[in-house]
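Lab meeting minutes (informal)
Scribe: AK
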Amino acid sequence: MAITRRRFLLGGLGVTGALVLGWGVSPMRQRLEPTAPLVTPQGTVALNGWLAIAPDSRVTLFLHKSEMGQGISTALPMLIAEELDVPLSSVDIVPAGIDKIYGNVAMLVDGLPFHPDDQGALKHGVQWTTGKFARELGIQVTGGSSSIKDSWLVLRQAGASARAMLIAAAAQQWKVPAGECTTKGGIVSHPDGKQASYGELAALAVHSNPGQIKLKDPKQFTLIGKDQPRRDSADKVNGHAQFGIDVRVPEMLYATVIMAPSLGGKVASMNDAQVAQLPGVVKVHTLNDLNSKVTSVAGVVVIAKTYWQARSASAALNINWSGGEVTQQQLSSASVMKELRQKLDTESGFTYYKTGSVQAARANETAIHAEYTAPYLAHATMEPMNCTAQVKNGKVSLWVGTQNPSFALKVASKVAGVNEDQIELHHAFLGGGFGRRLEVDMIAQAVAVAMQTNGQAVQLIWSREQDMSHDFYRPAAVARFSANLNSAGQVTSYENRSASGSVTQQVLQRYFGLIPAGPDKTTAEGEFDMPYEFTNQKIASVIVPSAVPIGYWRSVGHSHNAFFKESFIDELAHAAKQSPIQFRRDLLKQHPRHLTVLNAAVALAEKAGPLPQGHAHGVALHQSFGTIVAQVAEVSVQDKEITVHNVYCALDCGIVVNPNVVRQQIESAVLFGLSAALFGEISFKDGKVEQSNFHDYQVVRMNQAPQVQVDIIASAEHPEGMGEPGTPPIAPAVSNALFALTGQRLRSLPLRLS
């Protein structure tokens, strides 16, 4: 029989489908045992891929997440200590190597575009399959507010498994039933008086069978849920903590880079010969466009014996740039916004959520329309981009603070032309990540520079100006809303369409070379997944390819979509002649957790007493990364200067591991979001970024910082994200307070009164 093309394709799909089905129903990859033997501290015994025990019973946890101020160097040891029954003070941490068991599963699953209210079989099936796929990928990354969420079960299982192995070893040695043995404080005991420390049993426990692993009931927790002081605070206060920029290697050189100021720019001329003769200068090297190796635009590097010599020499290069003219003529903030609006005029976009039927206003209904905008934003981490690299004898050593160890190795391998097993990664604290250190451009550059130094280590440091003008920015966005209200003030129809670049498409292209295609949840998150119970609603988003490099910024799409959505909800409340708080309450009848959080934030504000004259409250409620946050902002205005005095915040993030760190993260997220709300804007003109440092890219100063009060709602639900969810509600809360105070509805960020 002749085989037609259609039959061939269908046959191929059948085979592929069978393979996928077989893979899909097979068990998930386990996350306790590493694929390669652990390299453990001398004298310690590894009981699984997460922990080892020393003869003195000290426990070593192999930390698979990057500490960038979110407190995981305290919280993750708490999970191990809780299930292992040891004091937290007895748990040491060392950075984990690269292994599939350390891959981030939760972050990939959370990236699926399902509505939180969807509890259907399709959602659960796709989540399960994605989780399985994530385990196979094993990408080791810290992001998406997923550190606790991703580690919650596996670290508790690692601790419980090790405890069971230690009990089994003691029971075998004492010839008693394991069920008669108990543990406390790193000691296994039996009712007849026998005792042995974990250190004494560890070597025997390696060969014991833990049997069925049983996790503690939350009622048995002695550490989890209790305030614990941060273990990294003392070293950060006294200067002992080592960030990437603090690294010192014997005979290390320093390098600075000057990159093309406009996209697509190349070096036309420079006085490199003269600069090479300046004191301390070792070499002047041109970095060609390394985009194919996941890095930034072309630039010129000066390598010198000290940082200041390199920095001073860089300033003397007098570089003339060429190329990029088309981009220069076309790229400006105005042209970007114009294109986003044009796309909303002509394209319907991808519909992420729809219920009922969105119809035009009837005769007795009021139509409300609004357009909101948000600009590009820089990450502006306090520690500028840097990486120390050494390429010697076919091996690469890296000293860097990174959120993305897996791709740090991949890009170093690609640039240096060595296998990944020939790369040694030394982890450092991150002086701010916020998504910027998910990128590995500075690592690629550092390796390329180290290849020019004949085996000497070199530390590449970006200046603040280079950092500000060569970021992977938070996308600019435009959102349009339409709603109808009947005579009773009820919303009968709600529609929201937005337009922006796609971070995920750019990231997949940068890292995997994939052609940009398909929907991207981050463009519409915070809009399509809201809890408000509108019977007829439709939320869609249009992806507009961005010439500007864009990346994940703290809370990603939620950062601006919360401002859009919560501001428009306030507009609807005003049009309905209802209080913004009661209006929201009426839309949350089937969402008790959201209603509880909203009421708790309002109660905090009310407890503070009557507002001073000239002050007003604004409210916002938003869920991101699984965590529900409500904020009430107390605001005043004098001579058009906006002052935020107090922020009252309530949240439900599921089970809390360390309440102390949760409160810190909320305070941090509020200030981060407030900086963006009041000042944040990266603008382009003639293809170039106009901002250069903190004088024209302001952040909230100490005297501008509000008091932040936090109420954590007790919950028995699985832990959710924490590092980012405090950021999205602050901009709309402040904006809504400004409307209550001045009558001006501000629909663009940053917030500026006319």
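Next up, CB showed the second protein from the same session:
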Amino acid sequence: MIVLDGTEAALVAGVLALWLVAGVSATILGIRRSAKARFAHAEAERLAALIAAAPAAPLIVTGTGRIEEDGRLADWLGLRRSLATLTDLADEQEGFARPDVEALARDVATTAISARGFARRLAMPASGRVLLVRGSPGLGSGRVMLWFVDMTESERETARLAGEADRLGQALDALSALIEAAPFPMWHRGPDLRLALVNGAYVRAVEADSAAEVVDRGLELLEANSAPFAIPADARDLGAVSVRTAPAIIAGARRTIRIVDVPLGEAGIAGYAFDVEELEEARADLRRFVDAQRDMLDRLSAGVAQFAGDQSLVFCNGHFLRLFEMEPEWLADRPEFDRILERMREAQRAPESRDFPGWKAGRRLWFNATAPVEENWLLPAGTHLRVVAQPLPDGGLLLIFEDRTEQLQLASARDTLLRVRTATFDNLFEAIAVFAGDGRLHLWNSRFRDVWNVQEEELARHPRVDMLVQWIAPKLADPSRAGLIRELVRIATVERQARGGRIALVDGRHFEFAAVPMPDGNALFTLLDITASRVIEEALRDRNEALEEADRVKTAFVANISYELRVPLTTISGFAEMLEGGYAGDLPETAREYVVAINSAVARLSTLIGDVLDLTQSEAGSLPLAAEPVAIAMLVRDAAADAADVARARGLSLTFNIPADSSIVIGDSRRLRQGVDHILRNALSYTQDGGRILVRTAIVGGMVEIVISDNGPGMPAHQRERMLQRFNGGAPAQGDGASSPGLGLPLTHQLVEAHGGTLDLQSEEGRGTTVTIRLPLAGRAAASAGAVR
């Protein structure tokens, strides 16, 4: 056993420790290299997998021109042989064209020398494939790495995209031209909502010189205070199209425009505007028209209901409410068409039907009708309705309900009246015919047919009046008068005037005819047989002539007898005056009274005979009258003064109011005095004792009035009417009880009229009588009287 000292032991321990450290280090180093080898192997496998999966096939060309590749390129290109050099790629059937391969070889040589990469496009004629070859310097001197990338699909897509780009470019050009040619403003706003593009219409609208000026100045269509960016911003933020209507100044004129903003995402906002001024005016006109139409429909006497395209009620007038007994509150909810029909049925205002659903479905078809539909409804209450369904262009329906109950009743009454008229016409004694405006015979009765002896068949052809005149001319005593009938019918139908006449027939009958215009433009022709009345007329005419002759004989007799009576009356008056004067000796008192009575009676009889003569001469127009100025006031005053004694003797009050004026008339003073005396004499004779008589004169409107009134007994109306007639018999006098022959008033009446005046008699039984004489003033007096009035 070897024993080592401490130094040796320490040395050995140190050597062993170093050995151990070296072994551990070697072990660790081996482990690390093994790991790196495994990583390198995995990386190589990954890269190989990437190369295998790559869309490109690699190829290495050495400096000697040899090709290094794993055969994948040949399979990828579809070659049936392996590749040794680049020239093996030249094959018209399977590979590339030789010129392309030669060009590739030159590129490879250039890259090997210059170490610069290249890219070349190669086409395979047989398959139509297109490959892109990219070359770069490879590992090692003179080596070049080639990558073959299949660009067939990319080329096709590129070609397609190029064509699409060209098409879109053309479309964009066309769209740009369209936008520029648009007659309304169009624009585009960028993301900041400021104008980026405008068309020519926009430039003209804002009255700018160019689109660039509009964009630079930011000229907006709307006024500055209308916040032009607010609504486009809302459209951009909401991503929805915005439409608004606003007033704007377009080309210097205020117009109403509709602005549309279309969001384009991040590209900004596109917009356009079009003038709706006329459209708004048309809408306003339409609204006014609809309001006016509905107001007019509401005033109609027919019920009107309008339904929209969804068959809901949109309008009904007041007569519709009353006709179908519906409540306005219920109709305000716009009930549907079917519900309206059901409510009509509930109110018994719809026709009775066993199949009401089917009937209702048939009425619903009115909405799809192409022409108006008309029906007649008979309601349970007996009401007759005429229903007109008018389809509307918007798919709606307009219903008109006309109550024809009264019309049908009137039609029935009219038919009855027509039958009554026909029966009346046929049974009238007169012959009647109605001619139309064109002169044709329209209606006639049997009497008309019988008078002219014309067949009913001929009249049924409604001949013209010319033809009818030819038929009746031979039946007239004077055929030329037939044309008068034609002329009268023409006057009645054309000139609308009534005419008449008489005709005689050859059989001796006489007719009176007349043509009268009717309200409907026709003419009524009537023919009345006056044969019997004509005979009576002729008899009456002969009798009248005989009576007139008798009156003339009577007047002549009265005049003659009155004249003849004057001679013995003058003799009696003369002898009576001689007796009264004592020529035959003194007479006893009784005889003297008798003589006075004889003289009074002779004077009265002489006056009456004078009146008769004057009256007869006045009627014959042979009474002589003087033409001299007459002072009426003086004449009436003298007459009243002469009558005053008689009035006092009878206890009568005679009052007269006669102004001292210059009332002058031209006439016969004696005859005028005679007339005033007659009236005064009548007043004195017919007024009871103690009565009152008033005489006054006045000038009224160029006439002088003489008014004599009394409060006597008056006279009834029938007696007053004949008091101015001659020989009227008079009335009992109040003074002596004798009867007056009544010649005073008729004579005075004729005398006043002979002087151009008038006499008015007013009398009422129990209230007296007033006689007013009016005479025209002479010219100068009339002028002055008019000035006074």
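CB comment: The first helix runs from residue 6 to 53.
No objections, moving on.
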